[in-house]
Fold:
Amino acid sequence: MGLESYRYACNVKWLGLRGDDLQLIPQSAFQELKPRDLQIAKSLLSSKFLQDTHRAELTRMVETGTRAEIEALYCHGFDFLGKFIARKIVQGDYI
Structure:
């Protein structure tokens, strides 16, 4: 099935935190990449089907060795996360 994997690929949208959003969260919210995270990221980076925008985001994660969860936006209040997601969807600000 590996040779036919392109047939099963779907159009993925990245709605969560991206490199441009990282200034919105405190430095303490960043988490070190776990070995499994790094393994998955490197595997995805080796795929020829990965879109350039996704590749850039993953490369940044691997280079910094950190990740951030979207829940870190709760530091701005409980309604901020919902507004953040709604704004991303309405503005089409996802990749």
